[in-house]
Amino acid sequence: MNSRQRRGVVLLLLSVLCAIAAIVGVLSVIRNVNSKVGPEITAYRVHSDIAPYTRLTAGDFERTRMPRRWLSDNAVTDLGQIRGKIAVTTLRRGSLLQSDMIVRQPELAPGEQEIAIMIDAATGVAGKITPGSEVNIYATFKGDDKGAPDTSKVIVSNARVVDVGKLTALDPDQSQNDRTRQATEAVPITFALKTLDAQRVAYAESFATHVRLALVAAGGGAPVPQRDRTYTLDGDK
């Protein structure tokens, strides 16, 4: 083997050693990154903006994989956690879902039942009534040709709201005698009520000219006295 061949062998060996060193270096970097990042886990991002107090479903979120150590302790990693829950604030698209963003939907107390009615969005809701709110429910009744005056009544006081549905467009071809004929949009509101109050609400929805809600201050208040529950224009003199 001449000197030129020996130099070639030496260079080849050096190239092999450099390649091995490079591979070892890359593997070392990968191991270092893996040790810092750690194992991945499933988390969930908000698919699109969710309004406060909206009942949550699996379709509201999309799966993503993230290193466990990058997630906060209250990150939701199992969508079973949203069952029966509502958003406590606006959930923005792309946000990681966390347990402090959601709360359990208010449950019925013994003797209560849920009843839902459509409320004119413009006059009865105005975006301020949410699950957990307390409201007074007013109904106005048209007088008759026998001399009975137009009447406004508080049919239920301090009614507890358990759900506020989505804004719904009303059918424009409703009967001219329908009390909602002048409303274009309504929201289904669900209340937790005792049996008699539920019957009052059902009656008002069927026969009243209008049904409106009045928001009660946080913490509720005393029920409306019986003497103040009925109002007529003739009596206000």
What features would you describe in this structure?
The protein has 237 residues and is an alpha+beta fold. It folds into two domains: 40-104, Type Iii Antifreeze Protein Isoform Hplc 12, CATH 3.90.1210.10; 113-231, no CATH class. The protein is 22% helix and 29% strand. It has three helices and eleven strands, in the order αβββββαββββαββ. Strands 5, 6, 7, 8, 9, 10 and 11 form a seven-stranded antiparallel sheet that branches. A two-stranded antiparallel ribbon has the order 1-2. The protein has a two-stranded antiparallel ribbon with strand order 3-4. The chain is rod-shaped, with a radius of gyration of 32 Å. The chain starts with a helix and ends in a 6-residue tail after the last strand.
What are the main properties of this structure?
Type Iii Antifreeze Protein Isoform Hplc 12; rod-shaped; alpha+beta; 29% strand; 2 domains
Strand segment count:
11
Query: If you compute it from the alpha carbons, what radius of gyration comes out, rounded to the nearest whole angstrom?
Result: 32 Å
What is the average of the pLDDT values? Answer: 81
Share of residues in helices: 10-25%
Can you tell me the overall shape? rod-shaped
Alpha-beta classification: alpha+beta
Could you name the ranges where pLDDT drops below 50 across 5 or more consecutive residues? Answer: 174-181
SS summary, helix count: 3
Sheet with most strands: 7 strands, antiparallel
Order of helices and strands: HEEEEEHEEEEHEE
Distance between the termini: 126 Å
What share of the residues does DSSP label as strand, in percent? 25-35%
Domains (count): 2
